[in-house]
Specification:
The chain has 199 residues and is α/β, with parallel strands linked by helices. It has five helices and eight strands, in the order βββαββαααβαββ. It has a domain of 55 residues. The strands form two sheets. It has a five-stranded parallel β-sheet with strand order 5-6-7-3-8, with helices on both faces. The protein has a three-stranded antiparallel β-sheet with strand order 2-1-4, covered by helices on one side.
Length: 199
């Protein structure tokens, strides 16, 4: 499958935040993972939200060709880690993962969460977990459902160096052939990825 973002432009209050951004992702390519780079406020989150279909661009298009998901961007399945965790705070870590897809069993959710999270945290309401623990729940929640593309906005925020390395390994070992588009200020420990600099 080929995903093409063509001349994506976004204007807020008369200011051009994104100016004709072009990116092509071939899901069978060895360079299908992309790291968005640029200072805060440059438009990385806006671009990710447009890619995910949460926000509309003012001009430009997203085109998908080849494979079952062909269809102008309307049928692309996205696994997303937002800049904020967006968890259901009264639910446990396990419940936050199972509630997004009826195909994900409690057993599978527990198995995956234990790869990045301490077992005693699994059944606590996530509001009782630290920010770093909540981040890990959000990552597992994005990874487990079937998807065509993974989008992650600052997924390593709030993680200490040891946990960050563990989470990076988890992401890269479990994403399969899905392309990953990530915005991250913290690039230490990340594998080599194709870079798209927003200036």
């Amino acid at each position: 499958m080929l995903i093409q973002f063509k001349d994506i432009t976004k204007i807020y209050d008369g200011k051009k935040v994104l100016d004709r951004i072009n990116l092509s992702i071939d899901t069978v390519s060895d360079s299908r993972d992309v790291l968005l780079k640029g200072p805060s406020g440059i438009g990385k989150t806006t671009l990710l939200r447009i890619m995910a279909g949460i926000e509309n661009s003012d001009s430009g298009s997203i085109e998908i060709t080849m494979g079952e998901a062909a269809g102008g961007g309307k049928k692309l399945r996205i696994g997303m880690v937002f800049q904020e965790n967006r968890l259901l705070e009264q639910f446990s870590a396990v419940e936050n993962v199972t509630c997004v897809d009826s195909m994900i069993s409690r057993t599978r959710a527990v198995e995956e969460l234990k790869k990045v999270l301490e077992e005693e945290a699994l059944d606590k309401p996530v509001r009782e977990l630290s920010g770093g623990m909540q981040r890990r729940v959000a990552i597992v929640r994005a990874m487990l459902p079937a998807s065509d593309l993974l989008i992650m906005d600052e997924p390593l925020t709030g993680l200490d160096p040891e946990t960050r390395d563990r989470v990076i390994r988890y992401i890269m070992e479990n994403k399969g052939r899905r392309p990953l588009i990530m915005a991250s200020h913290d690039t230490e420990g990340l594998p080599k990825m194709r870079e798209l600099a927003l200036v």
